[in-house]
Specification:
alpha/beta; two-stranded antiparallel sheet; Helicase, Ruva Protein, domain 3; 16 helices; Rossmann fold
Amino acid sequence: MSSITPEQIREIEARIRSETGKWLLGLEEPIQQLVRSLFVLIPYTDKITGVKSLGQPNIQFASRTGIGKTDMIESLSMCIEAKSSRIQGTPDLQPHDFIGDYVFVENARGERTLRFVPGKIYAHIVKIDEANRARPQAKAGLLEALEEHSITPLHEHVDIGDGQDRMFQKMPLFPVSGRYDDFDGPRFFMTLSTQNVYGEEEGAYDSPMAEIDRTTLVIPIRRPSFEKELQITSKNVVGKKIQKVTDLYEILEAAQFIHDNVKIHDRALEYRTRLIRNTDPEALMYDVSHGLKISPKLVEYVTSHIEVGVSPRVEFHFEAIARVHAFFEGSMVVKPEHFKAVAGQVLAHRVKLLQKKARKVRREDAFSYVLKETEVPPWAG
């Protein structure tokens, strides 16, 4: 049984947030959202053990260039005792570039063996810079890692060196111990990706829906205020060193406490599911045909603007983010308003607009309309 307390968890979060923000000015809100995402646990299918397990979210940051996305991700990874890696999104990126590849190794007796050299995906925190510059075909190689926290090598027989020679049908991502042969220890694996969204149409690719559906949060980063930008000088950042202030064991213990102890009220679950279904024309028409009272104005808007809405898979992501948000807001019960507060960053990027509307309407605006028209059930705590 965990001995950690809510006060200790908040102290851990404040410690990481303070260290992450040492180099950054005016980005307090996205830094807070990033740090709190460390404590999010989402169910996933562990095909190695055959058990439904809990794992970390995948986060994407979207903004114009030069705002501080990459610095934020780098500083976070520096203040945690963990293995981190960085993948640069480029048009020539191939799956083997980050999954790994095979090399022949010859010993002193002239015996040759095929050894698997793990790629950059084998890390606790994987940073993907300018993810939208990688081709969708390459990013398809990420889908198993994003969803199942494992990788299937191209060959079953893999010698990964150091005397570790065995049959690998799947390899886990990523044991806290850092050992490739650790199939039983606790794991920690999350991706943090960046995407430039203004004036970057050339050489960029739309993200596949399968990748979008596996991205828990899209956090927009806006330019700092005039007062904050006035403080951006070399004097305020040069010489500052990021210190290690926590490790993965401490983060996992805190995350497990939140998952086990923050309850979700029935009214909140009702609102969560209603909001998700209201983004989808097919689900809306089904609900209307089965007698549910839904605003005709909302039905008309969704069916005329949205091609595909949010999938049921996202119930898990939405619930997990709302649970952590509620905890850090001081509540051990998730209420409808907690879901509403985080809905835009969890759901909006998953909405696919009809082609005729996509040129005129942003998906964020379409989702905002659904959010506004979906009634929040009264809190009866």
